[in-house]
């Protein structure tokens, strides 16, 4: 069901009439005097809007670094170290040539 859409479910009211067809605790003719009185059907079907709630799943544990990422970082460190060693050797060789 898409989010934001409400589902309707049917609610069946209780059958029968109690207290002569009136709601319990109401006076005869009270519905005519007070426009705020709620009237509930005694027979038939009643539709109630049921809004969907978010269902959260259990959190999944993910590794901080994958094995592949660790291998790539190791290769990169080795390449940087090799480049630094080559630069140091070239600098040492250049320094040795410049001194007579």
Automatic annotation (TrEMBL):
Residues 1-34 are annotated as: Disordered. The gene is Bbip1. Residues 1-12 have a biased composition (Basic and acidic residues). It comes from the Eukaryota. This is BBIP1 protein. InterPro entries: BBIP10. GO terms for cellular component: BBSome. One of its GO terms (biological process) is cilium assembly.
